[in-house]
Design a protein that fits this description.
mainly beta, Collagenase (Catalytic Domain), Immunoglobulin-like, 8 domains
Length: 1172
């Protein structure tokens, strides 16, 4: 048996191996499960899927630890199910009783593992499940659909899968809320029989079906299934497929790999208590071991094998744990209380307080309606708190309630709903945030967007609202949306890179603009007004063919001209090639157009306020097969003309590279929206059309990097990594890549998609399985590790109207981010600047002009104080003052001041605290020091005097040093976010005083000094004779026992102060000070096995900070359960605790010196502790 580790690997997406179409024994040459076939096909068509699977595997690993805690109690999972009986009017139209018997079989085999199945009966406020067409639903949750076409289901095409969804479930029965099971007459491949009995497609592959397809003659048991196949008449085919849906592999996955205990979690079926099989087996009559490297026989009765129904009877415990982990990690919405109540699946004993507002964004004084999951006032009571205490209407007690907010000052408002079931007083409480704006009307050429499947989003009121009257479901390729409005924001037309639609919307072309097999992942089409024209527009597209396509005149960099006449839209030309003979031998070309690129962005260009022209940037491949960013000038003189190019630091084979421009037009972000690439920030000289200065932004290679957007002030960049993580990057940093802050994550199956900056200064994000866009409300706000959502990201934004698709999906328009109003502010503040190094900035003019005169206000820099460059770089002269202010002035060619910008440079001060002395010759030779790092600072500690070894890391706020020679110097080198460095040091002195002294003698010599860091205790009859000077110094207390005598003529001094002795001083204090021999002293150190400072049996023990005043951290190499006892100086126990935590609260202890005893795994060590 493979050794069982309670550890889960590999996300449930990798639920099948490559196709295994033969079976042993009674194989009959069929593969009853089609999951392998589909998975193999998906990976073959898109090998990058493997990266996404690995990305989800990481998520799975982080979540698996929660499973034992959930399973330790009475935790049960209920799965809401909808069955679709898709038939041709014959025997495939099985009765509801047969489906019910299948449901009984599911519960019979899954309920021992705390997983149950229940029919869904409704959706939201609707008392029944919505159906499509003439579907019949006698039993809620079992829907019969008559369609001979759909009943003979083709496994191999996305069109067939989409048709099955559209013709049965429609847009409302979605995979995040329901386990959808389609019962069909047959499963075909290119209309040919396959012998496949069922399949559960792998999510995120080319399969659109996140659910299960199974043949009708395997459903239910023999008594209820007269037409069932002989060996498949116990309902176990569906049990097998549900195992896939819950994340299990076949027992023969990857053959004999994973048979050994060291690989069983990574290879094979990734479950350690299921013996691997080399090939699938069809019957269980013969005991066999097909993988001899494992002593166990094949598990031929396992549900995840290919044996027939009479053979199968169990899942292993490891498989059950894996299913539980997958559901908990990736399908938690499915079995959540809110969802079970919403879909009416065995929810009678459940209670939900889910809040459904009519809008998450609203203007002041607008009314928002809030709905609860219920309407009954006899069964439930309700308390609404709208988070608006100044309003007299802040509280409501009805199932649904309305509220309007009078002020945006306290936005966002937190709305709280408590629902109580009256029969037993069981309650549920939930919250939602509502963002309120003091709206001002927005009249902008970007004031209307086409989103997802042609949903119309309007910003004109001041907050974005979807237009309920605009028809949707028009768009073919939502990834490639672009739309054009008039100057007031009224929609003129839009495109999905295939067709152009007017504002009714109706397509005006029959020939596609481009045949884009990639569906233009990202923004590969863009609309620009023709310069100095009021009625003509160019639709630019850049399209790459796939390896199976032939070149046609839609591929490459092209434009189509659109004519607008009083709102009527027509096409003047289509698929016009963009080419420049001067570069014809430099860039790749096909059919007269520059070729092999994708992303397009544009930046407004102006030499004067009245000139209308644009820089157009796109990616192209050179004949050297390298990637270039090509810059074209689009004006009313030359039309579209090549201007410059820049060798891309990002070079990938497919050249699917996207470009995003900052609103001020001074920065370009380039990234690969596919898998496995980093990205770069580049500078753009918008006066001269030149790109330079790339800076790396590193991505996790395991995932789709969907989109990016700059903040309105162009100082911050937001990007999405692996479709699930939203990051912010500070561009005003010498190394922006080191400033990344994780703002938010999205949980599977939801994803983060495309991003677009809105005319209201907020950033909007699309995704899946949501009826809302997500919003970054304050994108100019810098986030920090302590305040990671300072930008106010919220996953509920503009809300889609009911009807059509239940959810929004991918699709935001590619707009001109660097517009005239943002790139050419034309004000006294028309200067942008970015940090390049220590006190070094690069400047960009945000005004019309071609000649520049800069004065940096830094007279001390001499001749470097001025510049005539378009984008100059200057290093400011900074000394030791706390702050410096420089006024940068920009003048035009006539010497007129255009703009000024103040640069303020702060010199921060850091302080080293902590230890100041120790004893290098003892077991207590470790010091612990701290330095106060500010946001953006990092530290490196080094030893520059004496000698010793840094224990652990040298780049944290605190540092531990084991000294071997003192005095020593400890140096902290601080680097701030601007690249400036400062050095701070502290001296560590030698101090080898004993902790305590105990002695009994008569002082007869001359002078003597006793030092102890903690206490000095004399025994009885201690005497100081005449003529003797004695000094006692102790850090805590000095105790003279009874019958101590200080004789006449003696000088005796006892002081409570820090020990001032070094090793030499201590030795001299205990030696005679004159030639005559002194009576020997009977002194000894306090030392016991329970409170020794010398034993150190625990590996990697660190106790810090020391001195401490509130919390004490105790870390070890094992980090196991520790018993910690603290004693005061007289040996009294003051604290005793057993804990696995690293933190101990010592704030209750008085100032003084203590001993800490630590016991872990039978080993003991003690440490001295100072409480300040």
């Amino acid at each position: 048996m493979k050794k069982l580790f309670f550890f889960f690997l590999n996300a449930f997406l990798i639920v099948s191996s490559y196709s295994q179409k033969t079976t042993s024994s009674a194989g009959e040459g069929i593969a009853p499960c089609g999951t392998d076939y589909l998975h193999e096909k998906s990976i073959k068509e898109n090998p990058n899927i493997v990266f996404e699977l690995e990305e989800l595997e990481k998520i799975y690993k982080k979540e698996y630890e929660k499973v034992p805690l959930m399973k330790s109690g009475s935790y049960n999972i209920t799965i809401p199910v909808v069955f679709y009986v898709v038939h041709d009017g014959g025997t495939s139209n099985i009765p509801d009783s047969q489906v019910q018997s299948q449901l009984t079989a599911l519960n019979s085999y899954f309920s021992p593992h705390n997983i149950n199945f229940c029919l869904a009966t409704k959706l939201g406020a609707s008392p029944t499940l919505p159906t499509v067409g003439n579907s019949v639903q006698t039993t809620p949750g079992i829907i019969h659909v008559l369609s001979s076409t759909l009943a003979n289901h083709n496994i191999n095409t996305a069109a067939s899968q989409q048709a099955l969804i559209t013709g049965t479930a429609g847009y409302n029965i979605t995979s995040d809320k329901f386990l959808r099971i389609w019962i069909v007459k047959d499963i075909l491949d290119n209309n040919q029989p396959t012998g496949i009995l069922g399949y559960a497609p792998v999510p995120l592959t080319t399969s659109l079906l996140d659910g299960i397809v199974v043949k009708y003659n395997t459903i239910g048991n023999a008594a209820d299934c007269p037409n069932c196949l002989t060996n498949y008449n116990q309902g176990k085919t569906l049990i097998h497929e549900v195992g896939h849906y819950f994340g299990l592999y076949h027992t023969f996955h990857e053959g004999c790999q994973g048979s050994e205990s060291g690989t069983c979690l990574d290879k094979g079926d990734k479950v350690c208590d299921t013996p691997q099989s080399s090939v699938p087996m069809a019957n269980c009559n013969t005991v066999t071991n097909s993988c001899p490297e494992n002593a166990d026989n094949d598990d031929l009765s396992n549900f995840m094998g290919y044996t027939v129904d009479p053979c199968k009877d169990h899942f292993t415990q490891g498989q059950a744990d894996r299913m539980f982990a997958v559901l908990s990690s990736f399908r938690s919405v499915l079995f959540s209380t809110e969802n079970l109540v919403d879909v009416g699946a065995c929810s009678a004993n459940l209670i939900s307080s889910a809040i459904n507002p009519s809008s998450y964004l609203s203007c002041t004084n607008n009314t928002i309606t809030f709905s609860s999951p219920y309407t009954s006032t006899s069964q439930y009571s309700y308390i609404w708190d709208f988070g608006d205490p100044s309003s007299p209407n802040n509280i409501a007690t009805t199932p649904s309630a309305a509220h309007s907010y009078q002020s945006a000052a306290n936005s966002p408002y937190t709305v709280t709903l408590t629902v109580t079931r009256n029969s037993d007083n069981v309650s549920s409480t939930s919250t939602k945030k509502i963002y309120i704006t003091a709206c001002q009307p927005i009249q902008s050429s970007q004031g209307t967007w086409i989103v997802s499947s042609s949903n119309l989003l309007k910003f004109n009121t001041g907050v974005p609202v979807f237009d309920p009257g605009f028809p949707n479901n028009q768009i073919i390729n939502p990834y490639t949306i672009a739309n054009q409005n008039d100057s007031n924001g009224n929609l003129l037309f839009f495109t999905d890179k295939t067709y152009v639609y007017n504002n009714t919307p109706s397509a005006i072309n029959t020939t596609p603009i481009a045949l884009d097999p990639w569906q233009g992942r990202g923004f590969s089409t863009l609309i620009l007004p023709k310069p100095n024209s009021t009625d003509k527009y160019y639709i630019f597209s850049n399209t790459i063919k796939t390896t199976v396509q032939s070149f046609n005149d839609s591929h490459g960099f092209r434009f189509s001209e659109i004519q607008e006449n009083s709102g009527n839209i027509s096409m003047n030309s289509i698929r016009q090639p963009i080419f420049d003979s001067a570069m014809g031998s430099f860039f790749q070309t096909q059919l007269g157009a520059f070729y092999n690129g994708s992303g397009i962005t544009a930046i407004k260009k102006n030499n004067s306020q009245n000139e209308e022209s644009y820089w157009i940037l796109t990616t192209l491949k050179g004949v050297d097969n390298k990637t270039y960013i090509a810059v074209f000038l689009f004006d009313n003189i030359s039309g579209i003309k090549y201007h410059s190019h820049y060798l891309s630091p990002l070079n990938i084979e497919t050249n699917l590279i996207m470009l995003e421009a900052s609103p001020n037009g001074n920065k370009i972000f380039m990234y690969n929206p596919n898998w496995g690439s980093s990205s770069f920030i580049l500078d753009f000289n918008k006066a001269q059309g030149i790109i330079n200065n790339p800076k790396l932004i590193s991505y996790d290679p395991m995932g789709i990097n969907e989109s990016a957007s700059f903040s309105p002030d162009s100082n911050l960049l937001y990007y999405i990594e692996a479709q699930r993580r939203l990051y912010q990057v500070n561009l005003n940093s010498t190394d922006p890549d080191q400033t990344k802050i994780l703002v938010a994550t999205e949980n599977y199956p939801k994803v983060l998609g495309q991003m677009q900056l809105g005319p209201d200064g907020k950033i909007y994000i699309d995704g899946t399985y949501s009826d809302c866009l997500k919003v970054i409300h304050n994108p100019n706000n810098l986030c920090t590790t302590d305040n990671y959502n300072n930008c106010n990201y919220y996953f509920y934004g503009p809300k889609k109207n009911p009807g059509g698709n239940q959810y929004l999906s991918f699709g935001l328009p590619n707009m001109i981010d660097a517009q005239q109003s943002t790139a050419y502010i034309n004000s006294t503040n028309s200067i942008s600047h970015y940090l390049e190094g220590c006190n070094t900035y690069k400047f960009f003019p945000d005004y019309y002009g071609q000649s520049f005169s800069w004065d940096f206000g830094d007279i001390a820099s001499g001749s470097n104080n001025t510049s005539t460059a378009a984008n100059p770089t200057h290093t400011f002269t900074v000394g030791n003052d706390p702050q410096y202010t420089f006024t940068v002035t920009l003048k035009n060619s006539s010497g007129t001041v255009i703009a000024q910008k103040q640069i303020v440079i702060n010199n921060t001060t850091n302080t080293i605290t902590g230890s100041s002395d120790t004893c290098a010759d003892s077991g207590e030779n470790i010091t612990n020091n701290f330095i106060n790092l500010q946001q953006g600072q990092s530290v490196i500690w080094t030893i520059t005097g004496g000698s010793g070894t840094i224990q652990g890391s040298n780049d944290q706020e605190n540092v531990l040093v084991a000294w071997t020679q003192l005095p020593g110097i400890l140096k902290a080198t601080i680097t701030n976010e601007f690249g400036c460095q400062k050095e701070f040091d502290t001296q560590i002195l030698e101090n080898c005083c004993p902790v305590s002294l105990v002695f009994s003698n008569t002082e007869t010599g001359s002078s003597v000094v006793y030092n102890a860091s903690d206490n000095i205790v004399t025994n009885n009859n201690y005497s100081v004779n005449s003529g003797i000077d004695v000094s006692l110094k102790a850090g805590s207390h000095i105790l003279l026992q009874p019958d101590s005598h200080i004789k006449s003529g003696a000088v005796f001094l006892a002081r409570i102060e820090n020990c001032d002795g070094t090793s030499n001083r201590y030795i001299s204090a205990l030696s005679e000070k004159n030639n005559p021999p002194r009576k020997p002293h009977n002194y000894n150190f306090i030392k016991s096995t329970s409170r020794s400072t010398q034993d150190n049996e625990i590996n990697g023990l660190n106790v810090y900070p020391n001195p401490a005043n509130s919390f004490l951290y105790i870390t070890t190499a094992a980090n196991g359960v520790k018993n910690i006892t603290i004693y005061d100086v007289v040996g009294k126990e003051v604290l005793n605790t057993t804990t696995a935590n690293e933190t101990i609260n010592v704030s209750s202890l008085n100032a003084g010196i203590y001993m800490v005893k630590i016991t872990e795994e039978g080993k003991t060590a003690t440490r001295k502790l100072v409480i300040q």
